[in-house]
Amino acid sequence: MSDCDLTSGYSIPACNQGTGGVAQVWIGSWSGSSVLSLDSDNIITGATTSPSMYEFEMDGETINYTENEVGVAPGQFGGIYFNQVLNLVFNRNTSSIRNKIMLLSQTKIQAVVQDNNGLYWLLFHESGGRVSTGTGGTGKVMGDPNSTSIEFQSNSSVKAYEVNSTALTDFGITI
User: Fold this and answer.
1) Helix/strand/coil (H, E, C) string of 25-70?
2) What domain range includes position 88?
3) Domain-located, residue 14
4) Which residues of the chain have pLDDT under 50?
5) DSSP state of 171
6) Does a structural domain hold residue 13?
7) Has residue 96 been placed in a domain?
8) Inside any domain, residue 12
């Protein structure tokens, strides 16, 4: 049997509740040397040589991540890969935030996000995420946001791995 053979189906769970959004995000420098331990469901149960990650507290509903599956047209060489994207919004422009954004813009990162379902996901493990775009400003009227948003992207041969909460300490994350 090939690794690509489908061996089971999918059933809608009896309690089909899923909440969108990201609750928390931790970011650290990407080293490229992290080794992951995975269980039989490909959930991270441990990691070695991971750099420490730091919590980036964002206002509610200003963080999101997406994974876009990108396939090559039939008959062309290549395969499928996943474009991972993480968006952050830093409210209120300050010198401190400016300096943090400048630092983030100059390095590759990896990130762990906790979704609003309580699950943790490791992004940018294979090749590190880089800032792909950013926008900042003061707005025009008093009710407009005074903020900066940045987007990180990276391509990966696999979707983001779920991280077992007991493995978070291996990434320097304390809950």
Assistant:
1) EEEEECCCCCEEEECCCCCEEEEECCCCCEECCCCCCCCEEEEEEE
2) 22-171
3) no
4) 1
5) G
6) no
7) yes
8) no
Tokens coding 14: 């009896």
pLDDT of residue 162: 98
At residue 16, the pLDDT reads: 64
Q: Which runs of consecutive H residues, i.e. helices, occur in the chain?
A: 95-105
Specify the pLDDT at position 3: 64
Position 21 scores a pLDDT of 87
Q: What is the pLDDT of residue 61?
A: 84
| Number of domains present in the structure of the chain | 1
Query: At CB < 8 A and 24+ separation, what contacts does 166-169 make?
Result: 166/45, 167/37, 167/44, 167/45, 167/46, 167/47, 168/112, 168/120
Q: How many CA atoms lie within 13 A of 123 on its CB side?
A: 30
Residue type, 28: G
Helix (H) / strand (E) containing 87: strand 81-91
DSSP three-state, residue 24: strand
